Amino acid sequence: MSDLLDFTFAQARTKLAAKDFSAVELTRAYLDAIEAARPLNAYVLETPEIALARAAESDARIATGEAGALEGLPLGVKDLFCTEGVRTTACSRILGDFTPPYESFVTQKMRDAGAVMLGKLNNDEFAMGSSNETSAFGAPVNPWRRSGSDAPLVAGGSSGGSSAAVAARIALGATATDTGGSIRQPAAFTGTVGIKPTYGRCSRWGIVAFASSLDQAGPIARDVRDAAILLGAMAGHDPRDSTSADREVPDFEAAVGRSVKGLRIGLPKEYRVDGMPAEIEALWEQGAAWLRAAGAEVVEVSLQHTKYALPAYYIVAPAEASSNLARYDGVRYGARVPGRDITEMYENTRAAGFGPEVRRRIMIGSYVLSAGYYDAYYVRAQKVRTLIKRDFETVFAGGVDAILTPATPSAAFGVGEMANASPVEMYLNDVFTVTVNMAGLPGVAVPAGKSADGLPLALQLIGRPFDEETLFSTAAVIEDAAGGGFTPERWW
User: Fold this and answer.
1) Does the annotation count 370 as an active-site position?
2) Pick the catalytic residue: 78, 109, 196, 450?
3) Domain contains 364
4) Model-level pTM greater than 0.85?
5) Same domain, 237 and 175
6) Residue that terminates a domain, selected from 350, 380, 410
7) Which helix or strand (DSSP H or E) is residue 232 part of?
8) 78 part of the active site
9) 131, 135, 159, 182: which one is catalytic?
10) pLDDT per residue over 423-441, tens digit each?
11) Exactly one of 130, 131, 135, 158 is catalytic; which is it?
12) Do residues 71 and 58 lie in contact, with contact meaning Cβ atoms separated by under 8 Å?
């Protein structure tokens, strides 16, 4: 049944409809592959009984001609999405064995469309990290290896379990979340496609919160078409989320293959950062050349406040995190560590339940929100955020349809390789992605080449608000020009 794993989302959908194989057969193939791939540590909870039951239901609906958009297709769910009756921990000890009595809006939509849930996927604790090494379940392992080396590599953060599972063919696709690059960076590290949609395109209801004004759900998939199909199923208005946009969801799949002739693509000069590796610079130029060859006009643009994005992000995000994570106190749900009084119980629970990175961000956030520093840090960071958003608005108002940049400053690095680095060095992994979240824009990472040691490298496309269709059409051009070859050799 291993050949069943080779089909893309779109191909599997067609074959299921033609009854070339059943949803149960497809699901069993994935469950067997998951069992064989446990060294990757992509899943933190496997749900084979639920998967097979839902696959059987899908087969019944297919037989009666009532198939949904995702009918019978096996997916993984990031452990940040609440799943009714299935443990959801945000990969943190403080949530223990928390089992939600409700389903997130996004996973409910996918379930209603017929998707089969294979299990819950690894992520950085509360989505705080750039390498998925902060998870209470340990780091997932990238299915890629450097040429001539067996050293394990990170799968990217925070959605490393999602990216590793899709790249390793142990999920057809996966849900993910992006607060500062947590969909696009893991996708770039694993040779998969990840799209962070416009803020408000997908409801945040039922997703464990990190930074509420930045968090956004999206898919990680094998190719651009699959990502378009998945986003179409995930998106939609939700009255329970006050930031959910009441807008019609376009046919994103129809945008794949659309001509880019006449589009104007911007190259921001501020993204040519000091110390950028030559291979990243060359890939960026190659991407621009591919788009020119497809009929697009490529122009240089300026996003002059880009250099302030990373420090502003690491004020805004921890501030919101410190507020959101105040609810984890050992009283209502999750872990509880007793103390002599309620204050000590709070302190003991949070000290034992949160990992070092989460504690660091809570302390930073509490500091910048404190009475003496609120105006000096948090208010100023929000003003910078406004300037960053205006930069993009000016560029798009000038006739630019999309912006092309590198997705990451490097290929995937080794597990533990950054252990002795300062937190700031780790945060620099988000240098090309955080602006998109600060401005609430859509961004997609698409594999476009390989590093000198054979690892995937990706380009990022940034679009106008609620214009994901242009991103899918331009990303498809890059995907076609790159020519594939982004399936890792199996070593596990």
Assistant:
1) no
2) 78
3) yes
4) yes
5) yes
6) 380
7) helix 224-234
8) yes
9) 182
10) 878 888 899 999 999 999 9
11) 158
12) yes
